[in-house]
Structures are given as structure tokens and as C-alpha cells.
Amino acid sequence: MKLYLTLLLIFFSFNCKAQYVKPPIWQKYNNLPLKTTWINYPWQSKYLFNYDIKFYALNINIDAKKPTVSGNVQLWMKPIPLKDTFAFELNDIMSIDSILINNKKLNKFTRSKGNVIFSHPSQPKTSMLKVNVFYHGTVQTGGFFSGVSTQYNETWEKWVTWTLSEPFAAKDWFPVKQDLQDKADSAWIFLTTDSNYMAGSEGLLTQTVNLPNGKKRYEWKTSYPIDYYLISFAVADYMQYNIYQKDTDFSRDSLLIQNLIYNSNQYLAQNKSKIKSTKGMITLYNKLFGKYPFQKEKYGHSLTELSGGMEHQTMTTLGSFNFDLVAHELGHQWFGDNVTCSTWSDIWINEGFATYSNYLAENYLKGKTNGTQFIIQRQKSALKSNGSVYIPENQIYPGNEWRIFNGALSYDKGACIIHMLRHEINNDTLFFNILKAFQNKYKGSTATGEDFKNITDSITQKDFDYFFKQWYYGKGYPVYEIVWKQKKDTIEIKSIQTSTLKKPALFKMWMDYQINFTDNTDTLLRLHQTDTIQIFKIKSHKKIKNIIVDPNHWTLQKIALLTTSVKSNKSHNKEIIIPNPIQNNLIIYFKDDINKNKEINIYNIKGQQIIRKKSTVTKVNIPFYSLPKGIYIVKIKIGNYTKIKKIIKE
Asked: CA–CA separation, 381 vs 372, rounded Å?
């Protein structure tokens, strides 16, 4: 999913029975005691939802002008183990007309907080329970994460209705088991609407049936495993613009790229070249990630008024054919659809990799300059937040969707740490082999960040636990003060690293240094920092002109100071005050005055003293969490030495 935040959002929350889940993995990486966690995951009942969903068959009536749904949905489920009480989810606002169990009418069922509970006699393990739900209703809307939305486009004079079930809204419009780790083996989505409209969905359009009363039924079928939130529809006055992607790596001669766009030759003329760019993206991703995972069916787009895009399997729902939007959602077909995150805590598997797919498309299809600018913007965004990419389980609940889809963390920092991992591996062949191996092992299934780490360890024959501890589960980022000097034939680079937060206190990582010489030549050094203060010495007979840190923009960090060592300035560099601007913690590192008394005073813009601290240690951490945004003055006194510096809280 890619979001363009132009909507006024209305959030809905509800209470439900808490369920016991295993201790969250993030706790072991923060030296916290493992403990039980109680969270509002309504689909995780070990009793009522303990079955394997095998097949969804939707046969529903929809309308381009209003968010109404009626018809019936079959759920084929295999009980594990034998039970006689089951449940599925359906929003209480939807009316149930009847329920059939194995073609026999169910006389009694109960509804409780979005769950529909029913009993059925125990049966052999090998038998299939076929639940057919007849229902109708107008879907409750209001916000980006509504199950069904209807909107009118004034420019093209088209009504359009579409679904967006991620993460919790599938139950708003059809009976479902909302469990990420239980993909259905296949699905049929039969959509009946007025004959002047067309409806798009997953898989192949196997048949279009003309019905009485000016209706048509579009019969879509997919034979690939599919997660509940990737089942969708979009309906409007569409025309088809289909193109074909030929590639010798496909088992067929070509792949259908099926585009449902507003029925306007003018719209097609304006967007034809953008739509065709999908072909180059598929060729690129096919090379980097492995074969397009749904090649027996199609890839497609359904145009709607969605502010962004949603990676519905084989049929992306989007609001435009913007290059970055198409690249992002197409990347999801591998990362998010073929391999889906096992938990919403691991949304990085979806959004981090789709954002990095976007970078790869920019870099390889539009040029290195575009790719560089793209990753720089992602890094700037990520540095605005100190949060973790992995989302603690107790933050996953309806009403908190924007934590799951946090742009700075799940998307931008998620992409940045993939970029850094590539730099840490320092071997593109290995890196892309990891992506392919990950796709191959977990195809049609789900995976966690730990699963990806294990694949990385296996392919590289190295342990990347430190990396994931720092970047995936950890918070904050490193800040550097770098001082270099040259004496005769030796270059000395002193790197002091501090963290914006206490944990992790140190980011062990490789850093590139471009050494520019006075004879207009240069060399690139790759240095591994494993301590807070580290001195690197390199032999060179050439005279240095300057040094550029991370010239190719691989790493996520801030450089607070980069200078050459000059004796006359030594007395003016007793301390380092970082970061600036500041968000959470102000860190002051004292270089030379070990065990000396230090007095720190902080004043607001009005000159009022708000913090006073005395210390003898070399590193002082001052929390700024509760202070309002604005300008502050830091005054440091060590004996007869006084330093005053302006800082900004943003």
C-alpha cells in the first residue's frame, strides 16, 4: 500500500475479548524480561477460529454509485483439531439473511462484536466444512481504511466504488477469517453490477454473463494462495487497455497486463505511456527478485479515487499511474502478496521492500541520479523519527492503523535498512540471491523479519543478528563527529559515534569515506566502526584536500562534525553537542575533560533557565521529550572555559 495523505480521517475503535499471544520478540532485543501480552486481536481465538481456511467463493452484487454489498459468500474450512463451535467475522452493520452448513440451513447462530458464532457436530478430520453466508447491507465508510468506498470523479464524470481491506476491514464487506498466517488456497470473486459498468478483481476473468434486468456478472478466479485482505473489487464505467509483457523467463510467451481505466479515450491518451512503463518494471523485478509470482494469471490495475494505491493480488487498485506509485505496488506482488508478512508487526516484509523496489526502479530505469535522490529523501524522512521498524504487538489494533503504516518507519526507514543491509553485505550477487531465496522459500505463504534474517545468514554465511537488533528492532540512529588529520604518510580518521537514544548505544556498521587528494585523484575507504570512539590509520603519500563521508548515501545517520584537526582550534572543541536539530535526547560528549566538574545550563528563547545539570562523566544525556518545539540556548562551563550554543527542538 502506498498512501498519499490528503484525506480527512475518521478512526473507529472497539473493544473485544483479549487473547493470549506469545511474548513479543522485540523484548529480547531490548534486554526486557519476557512476559505475557494481552492485545485486541479478535481473529486469534484459539477455539472459535481454529480451522484452516481453504477457499473463498464470493458471489455478490455491487454498485458503482454506493457502497452496498449483497449476495452470498462460501467459506470452505478444515477444522483443526475436531471442534463443534466455529466463527467467522462480519461487521455487525451487515445483515445476515441465512447461513447454510454443508448445504443445510443453520437454525441458530450468535453475533458478538463482529464475530458470527455457530455450532456444528464434530466430523472427521478429512472432511470439509462448507459455510455459505447470505447477507446484505451498506458498508460503513469514513476514512482511508474503510472496507468499501464510493466517490465521484468530476473531471472524467465517473462514479467508482472500490474496496480496501488492509489491515482489519475485510469483515466490513464479506464474511472472512482475518488471519494473516492462514491464506486461502484459491478464491472465486463473482461480481454482479449494472451492465454499463465493469468490475475488476483477482486472477483471470473467466466469463462475463449477461443477466436479466440490465445486469452483468464478472467471474474472476484465482488459483494462487491469497491472504484475506488481498481479495478485492473495483467497479466503474471502465474500458480495458491491455498490454503484454514478453520475457523469455516466463513459461508462457507473454504476461497479460490488464488495465481497467475510466472509459475515456482522452484519459487513455494522457496515461498510455505511463501504463506501458509497467512492462519495464516487471522485466527489472523479474530479474532481481525472481519470476513474477502469478504468471499463470495476470498483473493488472483498477483505476479508482483511492489516494494512493493498494496491492490487491494480480490487480492493484490505484488513484493514478504515477511512476513511483506503480513501481511500489508492483513490488508488492513479490513482497506482500507472494510472500506476506506473518504479523502486522512485521509489515516491513510488505512496505519496506515495496519502497525499496521503488528505489530500484528509479535507479535502474530512470537513472542513478533519480535513484540517489529517491534514497536521500527516504533517509531524510526516516531521520525524523526515533521509532523502530518492527511494531510491538500491543500497538497493533483497530484504530491504530497509522502506526502500522507509518510512512517514516514502515516505509522509509524500512527501505533504508534494506539499503544498508546491502551495503553491509557488500556483494550485490549475494544480496539479490537473498531476495530470490526468500521468495522461493516462502512463496504463497507468510514470513517475519526473523525469517528474512535467517535467509540472509544462510546465504552470506554470516550472523546479522547485530544488524537486526540495531535497525529492525532497535530505535534511533547514530550521530558522528569525525576529525581527520594527515601526518607525513599517515592519514588518521577519528570517528566518535553517539546514538540519539540509549538503546542501542552503538550502531556497529561499515562507513564509506571518499578521500580527495590535491592532485585531483580520490580513493574510497570502507571502514568498520565497532566502538564509540575509533581511530583509523591509513598509509598514503598523497596530500589530502578533503574527505566526504558516505558519498554514495548508503547509511542512515547524521554527521554532526566533519573537520580536520587544527591545533589553534583545539581549545574550542572540548565538547560535542548532538543532534541539532533535536527531537528526543540531547547528548553532550566531552572529549578531553575526563573527571572534571562540568556545569550545563539550558535556557529557552526568553532566557529562562529550564535545565541545570552537573556532571563529571564524559557523556551526558539530557531528555528533551517533554519540552516544546523551539530554540534553546545551551551554556557549558568547565573551570574557566565557557561555551554557548544555540539548538533547535523540532
From this structure: 14
